[in-house]
Amino acid sequence: MKAKETLLARLRFEREARRAFLPRFGHGRYADAWTLLHVFSGVTLGLGCLLLHIRPYPALFIVLVLAFAYEAMEAFIGIAEDIENSLTDVAAAACGAIL
After folding, report:
1. What is the 3-state secondary structure (H, E, C) of the chain?
2. pLDDT per residue as tens digits for the range 5-30
3. Prediction pTM value
């Protein structure tokens, strides 16, 4: 049973993309148009933290946790993408928060 669960987790996270970067909404190995949405989400969350007077490092931590939770939720509901793409999306949200 464990092998089947591991295979399922692998299928959800590691569907190989054909291209490293996809300039439209789709599935790129490292980045795609959805990455821009993650940057804008990071900017929005960063501004929200700024308005709530949350200091920079705790704000960055909050954005990282929320971005990671979102990527985990995507995998849980069956949105398959490369692990590199998920990590790039988390990093994009963090970069957006830093802006």
Report:
1. CHHHHHHHHHHHHCCCCCCCEECCCCCCCCEEHHHHHHHHHHHHHHHHHHHCCCCHHHHHHHHHHHHHHHHHHHHHHCCCCCHHHHHHHHHHHHHHHHC
2. 554 555 555 556 565 556 655 666 67
3. 0.74
